[in-house]
Design a protein that fits this description.
There is one protein chain. The protein contains 5 helices and 4 strands; from the N terminus they run H-H-E-H-E-H-E-E-H. The chain has about 130 residues and is α/β, with parallel strands linked by helices. The chain has a single domain, classed as 3-Layer(aba) Sandwich (Rossmann fold). Strands 3-2-1-4 form a 4-stranded parallel β-sheet. The longest helix has 15 residues.
């Protein structure tokens, strides 16, 4: 894991507040979630939880997952009523059923090879058939 997500997590958090429009990103996901009547969401690579508050305000059951303890500390501080799990999305082992899993576009860059993608596909198939 890079220093950006550990030692520099607070700087990363502050920097990304001005780089991304999280309201617009939430609206993008929200359109699909409404279309398919999804109410429970797992966000892989949730980082510092910038999307979490939007899901919470809109009454979604939201869980965020990230590998970085430091990023999750920020997420928990900013979203105390949200569940966050520390784990590696490339090797998921969660036994909770969700209506939808979202993987923000910038997160997909952490899949380092086809094996990671295959593991995620298998996890999603198992999760939705749970």
């Amino acid at each position: 894991m890079t220093k950006l997500y550990t030692e520099l997590a607070n700087i990363y958090y502050e920097m990304y507040q001005s780089l991304f429009d999280y309201e617009k990103e939430f609206e993008f996901y929200g359109n699909y979630l409404k279309k398919y009547n999804c109410r429970s969401i797992l966000e892989l690579g949730c980082g510092n939880g910038n999307l979490a508050s939007h899901f919470l305000k809109s009454n979604y059951e939201y869980v965020g997952l990230d590998i970085s303890y430091e990023m999750l500390e920020i997420a928990r501080k900013n979203n105390p009523d949200v569940s966050f799990i520390q784990g590696d999305m490339r090797d998921l082992q969660i036994n909770i059923k969700f209506d939808s899993i979202i993987i923000p576009g910038f997160t997909t860059g952490h899949f380092l090879n086809n094996l990671h993608i295959k593991k995620l596909e298998l996890f999603i198939i198992i999760l939705f058939n749970y």
